[in-house]
Design goal:
By secondary structure, this protein is of the alpha/beta class. The protein has a domain of 263 residues: 3-Layer(aba) Sandwich (Aspartate Aminotransferase, domain 2). It has 16 helices and twelve strands. The strands form two sheets. A seven-stranded mixed β-sheet has the order 2-8-7-6-5-3-4, with helices on both faces. The chain is globular and about 60 Å long. The two termini are 34 Å apart.
């Protein structure tokens, strides 16, 4: 099914080149987010399609009839996010919108420079190989793409502002055997030893394979550290979000992974205590230069009154539209009793794990039990018994998602893109909010029949792949 052309085109606007539909009719992930009727989707990652309910949101939107409608919609979206994530009667955070998690990664260094303009920045980054493709460059203060959210060309890899001096200390997610590494002691040592720099700790709860960092170290360390926690997969509870905010952490979320909105739509939750510090600071224009190519006034909520005036008045219609879709998905999933969704995820997890254990081609990644249950990561073996490399898996992924199949009424399949670690690579299958909503409508005894067939197809493809 194709939705109204003028509206569907807007879905692809307001972001970097990853949004582009190529000559093949798909984007770089080999998918077209507006074509969904025949797709069996177990990706729930950076790129998801519309579904019948979210397509209806687009078809009925009056979002762009007048400029006032657009601003009013953004204001309403702010209220909806706050309603979903705050406890009743509370207002714990301000918001900064951005097209993707990579764009959100610019904010900690911007805030650090505003609060401590004379200091170099030391940024601790965990799970770098399992974050968004542009996050590391963004944390370094460099353009991670060739185009910004306003459709303007920028120079990928170029410094946004030469006055920023960021030292990035990376702590990889997995060792050579694929086991998850706990870095709490090493992170503590690095942050404690360096007294002169402005320190940022960037942790992750829900990497591409569902890894969760140890956040218990946060209150044990120097209060001078600025913490940002990547929840971009957003497979997390309201209680965790508020726990992190209560510890003074900034929290990154997106609507385009678990909630399966079309790519890309991100937002940073900023504790009001930090917003107040930023507003109380003297914000020098020389430190916001360049970042006006990343953000606009409309990306910041009113709590950032002192900061907003340093940015242009440019509206990203595509981003507002994608958030409209994401919020409908969030609110729909929020109405599902938690016990029902949790039980379904556990049953699905067991079904997929059994398929992997029965296969000669697949092998679960180590420490799978330590990751989020709605994501399952596994290595793939060739028919010769060797693990497929990252480059091999990219070829396997592309070939598999481009072929045609018969899975009930579906003719296409989609799953998570390959992930690379130090000595290997793996693929992922995952459930998203719409998958859970749809599965709950089906008969329990046949609920996962298509998933079993899907895994059988992946197994057969692996056996025939050279």
């Amino acid at each position: 099914m194709e939705i109204l052309k003028d509206i569907s085109n807007l879905v692809f606007q307001g972001g970097d080149e990853r949004l582009d539909i190529l000559e093949t009719g798909n984007n770089k992930y080999h998918i077209n987010p507006t074509v969904y009727d025949n797709l069996f989707n177990r990706g729930s990652c950076t790129c998801s399609t519309l579904n019948p309910l979210t397509a209806k949101v687009l078809e009925e939107t009056d979002l762009f009839e007048t400029p006032d409608n657009i601003i009013a919609t953004r204001d309403h979206q702010i209220k909806r996010i706050k309603s979903l994530l705050n406890y009743e009667g509370k207002d714990e955070f301000d918001l900064v919108f951005a097209p993707s998690g990579s764009d959100l990664a610019y904010l900690p260094i911007l805030f650090s420079k505003i609060l401590k303009p004379t200091k170099e920045i030391l940024l601790i980054l965990t799970c770098p190989e399992e974050l968004g493709s542009g996050s590391q460059m963004a944390y370094l203060g460099k353009y991670y793409a060739n185009r910004n959210q306003f459709g303007e060309e920028v120079e990928k890899g170029e410094d946004i502002n030469l006055r920023y001096d960021v030292n990035l200390a990376r702590f990889k997610a997995r060792n050579d055997e694929g086991q998850i590494i706990k870095h709490s002691n090493e992170i503590s040592d690095v942050l404690i030893q360096d007294k002169k720099k402005s320190k940022i700790g960037a942790l992750v709860i829900g990497s591409k394979s569902g890894i969760e960092d140890d956040i218990s170290l946060i209150p044990k360390l120097d209060k001078d550290v600025m913490w940002v926690v990547d929840l971009c997969q957003f497979r997390n509870s309201k209680s965790l979000v508020n726990h992190l905010l209560g510890m003074g952490c900034m929290v990154m979320i997106t609507g385009s992974k678990f909630y399966m909105a079309p790519p890309f739509c991100g937002v940073m939750l900023v504790p009001k205590s930090m917003t107040q510090k930023i507003n109380d600071s003297e914000i020098l224009p020389k430190y916001t230069e360049g970042f006006d190519k990343i953000f606009s006034q409309y990306d910041f909520t009113n709590g950032f009154s002192n900061l907003k005036k340093h940015f242009r008045k440019k509206i990203n219609k595509g981003l507002i539209l994608r958030w409209e879709i994401a919020l409908n998905e969030m609110e729909r999933f929020n109405d599902i009793p938690r016990a029902n969704s949790s039980k379904l995820i556990q049953s699905w997890n067991a079904t997929i794990r059994n398929s992997i254990l029965e296969s000669n081609s697949f092998e679960l990644m180590p420490h799978q039990e330590k990751t989020n249950q709605s994501i399952i990561s596994f290595r793939v073996k060739s028919r010769f018994g060797t693990y497929l490399s990252y480059d091999d898996l990219k070829g396997f992924y592309q070939e598999t998602v481009n072929d045609n199949y018969e899975i009930g009424s579906y003719t296409k399949i989609f799953f998570g893109q390959p992930v690379k670690y130090s000595c290997g690579a793996f693929i992922r299958v995952a459930l998203g909010a719409n998958n859970i909503y749809t599965l709950l409508q089906e008969e329990e005894n046949t609920r996962f029949d298509n998933d079993k067939l899907f895994m059988k197809i992946l197994d057969e493809k692996a056996n025939s792949f050279i």
